[in-house]
Specification:
The protein has 284 residues and is α/β, with parallel strands linked by helices. Helices cover 42% and strands 17% of the residues. The structure holds NADP nicotinamide-adenine-dinucleotide phosphate. NADP nicotinamide-adenine-dinucleotide phosphate binds next to α1 and β4.
C-alpha cells in the first residue's frame, strides 16, 4: 500500500523509480516508467541486495511483515522480514553508498505514557510486530546515512485498510462495533509519501515521526468515514478488551512530529482533510 504511494510521489517530482518485491511482475499502476525486479527477500545476502540496488541514491525499505495479530504466532517469520532483512539491506546500502529510509511504526511504543511520543522517547513495544520493527530500526541505525520514519494507522489506495474495510462492513452489516479506547493519528499514504520524497532530499538523517495532524479513536475515525460518505449504518463503541485481538495494541500511540517541525518542515494536513481527499480519489 505505502509502496505504491511512495513510487508515485517520487515519479511526481521527476525521479526514476525501481521497485522490487515477491511478485512476478510489476503491480504498480502508475504513469511513468518503473524498473521492476523480482526478489525473494528470504535470501538476505547483502552482496545480492547491493547488486539489486546498483547505483540508486536512496533505498526506501517498505517490505514488511505487517500482519499484527498473526505475528504473535509467527514471531520468527516477523523478525526475519522486519529485522534480519532490514539488517541485510542496511549492509547492502553500506556497500553501494546509498542512503536508506526504513519505515517503522507507532507500535514500537507501548502507548501507556498518556501523552504523545517524541522521536527520542524510550521505546517499549508490547507486540511481536512492534518488537520486530524495533529490531529493524536498530539494524538500520548501525549505518550513518539512514532515516527512520515512524508512522501510524495508514490508509490509502492499493491495499486493504481500515477505511475500505469499514465502508464494506457498513454496506453488509446492520450495525458496527468499533474500538473507542485506542488513540492515534490516521495517516494517508499519499501525504506520507510526499513527505518521504521531501525528507530524502534534505540529507538530515535520523528518526522522524510523520503522521497526518490530529488525534482520534478508531470509533471516531469510523464515524467520520460514514459522515463524509453519507452512510447511515449505526456505529457503536466497544473496548479493546471486548474486541479480543491476539496482539496487544498501544492505547495512546500519538506520534508528535517533533523532528519534522524542528527541521522547519510543514506539518502534514489534518487526518479528516486527508480522509476526504482519499475518498474522492477512491471514487474515481
Ligand atoms: N499499515 C499501517 O497502518 C502501518 C503503520 C505504521 C507503519 N507501517 C509500515 O509501513 C510499511 C508499509 O506498510 P503497508 O501498510 O504498505 O504494508 P503492505 O501493504 O502489507 O505491504 C508490505 C509489502 O511487503 C511485502 N513483503 C512482505 N514480506 C516480504 C518478503 N519476505 N519479501 C518481499 N516482500 C515482502 C509484501 O509483498 P507481498 O504482497 O507480495 O507479500 C507487501 O507488498 C511497513 O514497513 C509497515 O511496517 C504500516
Amino acid at each position: 500500500m505505502l509502496g505504491h504511494a511512495v513510487a508515485g510521489a517520487f515519479l511526481e517530482v521527476g525521479h526514476a523509480v525501481a521497485g522490487c518485491g515477491t511478485r512476478d511482475r510489476q503491480v504498480l499502476a502508475l504513469p511513468g516508467e518503473i524498473r521492476y525486479e523480482r526478489y525473494a527477500f528470504e535470501s538476505w545476502d547483502p552482496e545480492a541486495i547491493a547488486r539489486l540496488i546498483g547505483d540508486a541514491e536512496v533505498v526506501i525499505q517498505l517490505a514488511a511483515y505487517t500482519r499484527v495479530d498473526q505475528a504473535e504466532a509467527e514471531p520468527l517469520l516477523a523478525h526475519r522480514t522486519n529485522a534480519l532483512f532490514a539488517q541485510a539491506v542496511a549492509r547492502a546500502c553500506e556497500i553501494t553508498g546509498a542512503d536508506l529510509l526504513y519505515v517503522s511504526t507507532d507500535y514500537v511504543f507501548d502507548g501507556r505514557a498518556g501523552r504523545s511520543y517524541r522521536e527520542w522517547d524510550a521505546t517499549a513495544p508490547a507486540s511481536v510486530y512492534g518488537q520486530s520493527k524495533l529490531a529493524g530500526e536498530l539494524a538500520v541505525r548501525r549505518i550513518p546515512r539512514h532515516y527512520i520514519v515512524r508512522t501510524s494507522w495508514l490508509f490509502g489506495e492499493h491495499g486493504p485498510n481500515f477505511v475500505a474495510t469499514i465502508l464494506k462492513a457498513g454496506r453488509e452489516q446492520p450495525e458496527l462495533k468499533v474500538v473507542n479506547d485506542q488513540f492515534g493519528s490516521p495517516t494517508y499514504t499519499g501525504d506520507l509519501a510526499r513527505a518521504i520524497a521531501r525528507l530524502v532530499t534534505t540529507r538530515r538523517y535520523g528518526v522522524y515521526h510523520l503522521t497526518n495532524r490530529g488525534i482520534t479513536t478508531w470509533f471516531d475515525f469510523a464515524c467520520e468515514i460514514f459522515r463524509q460518505k453519507g452512510v447511515a449504518t449505526p456505529v457503536l463503541p466497544r473496548s479493546t478488551a471486548d474486541a479480543g485481538r491476539p496482539a496487544p495494541r498501544p492505547p495512546y500511540s500519538v506520534l508528535e512530529n517533533w523532528a519534522w517541525q524542528v527541521a522547519g518542515e510543514e506539518l502534514l494536513p489534518a487526518w479528516e482533510d486527508a480522509l476526504g481527499r482519499y475518498l474522492v480519489r477512491s471514487l474515481r
